[in-house]
Amino acid sequence: MYPAFFLTKCKNKLYNNQPKTLILGQTIQYLPTCQSTNDVASELILNGQASEGLLVITHHQTAGRGQRGNPWEARPGENLTFSLVLQPSFLQASEQFWLNIAISLGISDWLVTHLHERMRIKWPNDLYVDNRKIGGILIENTLQGYSIAWSVVGIGININQTRFSHPNATSLLNETPNDGEFVLENSLNSIAEALEKRYLALRSGRRDVLKAEYLQRLFRYQEEAEYVSDGERFRGSIVGVGETGLLAIETAGRLRYFGFKEVEFVI
């Protein structure tokens, strides 16, 4: 439980400058430590204390999680771990992957400024530099009828951490010739601005543009590689992503579609 007085006391304690946005990050709730920013944001929604654009951030997330329920490794004060509250009521429940596309593009827009063509979006929720993971996204939606009432968008980006227990993980500092550590507050503001541009594009119906750019940045798009599904290892080439988020892989002369958790990339 995170009572209102605690959140108000901690608000903007370290994040004093608001991003140049209309919605996202205009209200920032800072917690020195918490189990999960997604859980905090969800509780604020439940208690009627959240509005669209609320950003919940912590320097120490003790029980962060990613897709498939995997834990998210992040050393305190070295990375960005935060959640955004959105109200994408313009999306039907069957269209929720479009929000994933917009969010992935927004984060990658910022990463591309540092990593250029090395930055890729790995379906469904990861951000990669070459073959190493630099960030992840976890979107949790609440439905009202056939539409999405609330979305809590959890984002973790490795910024200044240089050592990881997982050999496949990396950070922005590891992958760039930066002279010193990145300023987390400045990075957060720039990411919020990039995310809002993509979110507003989605809200205005620019789906064709978003989909085309998403495919351009998609990890292993139109490249032959190895995958595993139901214990079967096979070679194939990603040829697209369906309207509901199914991954289309061409293999052995036929097209196969996979949902979340139904296929694994061999890295």
Rg from alpha-carbon coordinates? 18 Å
Helix-strand makeup class: alpha+beta
What would CATH call the homologous superfamily of the largest domain? Bira Bifunctional Protein, Domain 2
**Would you count the extended β strands for me?**
12
Instruction: Give the ordered list of helices and strands.
Output: HEHEEHEEEEHHHEEEEE
Domain module count = 2
The backbone outline, from C-alpha atoms, is globular
Count of separate DSSP helical elements: 6
Strand arrangement in the largest pleated sheet: 1-2-3-7-6-5-4
**Into which percent range does the helicity of residues fall?**
25-40%
* Main CATH class of the largest domain: Alpha Beta
Low-confidence stretches: 1-13
**Mean residue pLDDT:** 92
The biggest beta sheet, please? 7 strands, mixed
* End-to-end C-alpha gap: 39 Å
CATH architecture of the largest domain: 2-Layer Sandwich
**Percent of sequence in beta strands:** 25-35%
What is the CATH topology descriptor of the largest domain? Answer: BirA Bifunctional Protein, domain 2
